[in-house]
């Protein structure tokens, strides 16, 4: 049994203690991962702590967290895809109308490669609930970004002298 030590995170004396054999379950959106046999140090004053650097607790915990993070992104991605299809938009149209960004932005969101911005998820959910608003969205999107906002007209010298 290791003794209690000074917590170097908050400075409390005799507050940092070692634990082992602990299990933890991480949950997100109805998905969960249980990680067993974790060990580390924790402070009874500030509640902060760290995994035992001499074993694989941090790695196993990190992997479980990464898996859930990916699963979460894929779940949001599947929802985006379902709504986009319901609205009869191609990925390209969805980018031009709703998200902006690169031409494959929507494809990356739908694959769970990137988490869509909250504003976009919210917009998609609103359109899912009120699909008739898509027509309004198409009108209101005009001039809402700089895509195609500029026009360029070249003038030859004679014309510019004449008109100025
Ligand atoms: Zn502390």
Task: Based on the model shown, name its key terms.
164 residues; alpha+beta; Ubiquitin-like (UB roll); 434 Repressor (Amino-terminal Domain); 2 domains; three-stranded antiparallel beta sheet; 6 helices; 3 strands; 44% helix; elongated; binds zinc ion; Lambda_DNA-bd_dom_sf; Type II toxin-antitoxin system MqsA family antitoxin
Q: What would your notes on this structure say?
A:
One of its GO terms (molecular function) is DNA binding. This protein is α+β, with helices and mostly antiparallel strands and 164 residues long. It has two domains: 1-55, Ubiquitin-like (UB roll); 66-142, lambda repressor-like DNA-binding domains (434 Repressor (Amino-terminal Domain)). It is 44% helix and 18% strand. The chain has six helices and three strands, in the order E-E-E-H-H-H-H-H-H. The chain starts with 15 loop residues before the first strand and ends with a helix. Zinc ion is lined by residues 7, 9-10, 12, 15, 43, 45-46, 48.
Walk me through the topology.
Elements: E1 16-28, E2 31-43, E3 49-51, H1 57-86, H2 91-99, H3 105-110, H4 118-129, H5 133-140, H6 157-163
Antiparallel strand pairs: 1-2, 2-3
Helix pairs in contact: 1-4
This protein binds zinc ion.
């Amino acid at each position: 049994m290791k003794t209690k030590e000074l917590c170097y995170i908050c400075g409390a004396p005799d507050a940092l203690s070692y634990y082992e054999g602990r299990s933890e379950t991480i949950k997100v959106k109805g998905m969960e991962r249980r990680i067993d046999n974790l060990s580390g140090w924790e402070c009874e004053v500030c509640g902060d702590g760290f995994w035992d650097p001499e074993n694989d607790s941090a790695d196993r915990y990190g992997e479980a967290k990464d898996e859930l993070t990916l699963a979460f992104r894929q779940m949001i991605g599947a929802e985006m895809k379902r709504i986009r299809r319901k609205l009869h938009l191609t990925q390209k149209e969805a980018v031009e109308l709703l998200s902006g960004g690169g031409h494959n932005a929507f494809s990356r969101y739908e694959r769970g490669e990137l988490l869509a911005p909250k504003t976009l998820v919210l917009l998609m959910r609103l359109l899912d609930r009120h699909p008739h608003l898509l027509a309004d969205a198409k009108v209101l999107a005009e001039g809402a970004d700089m895509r195609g906002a500029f026009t360029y007209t070249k003038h030859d010298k004679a014309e510019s002298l004449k008109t100025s």
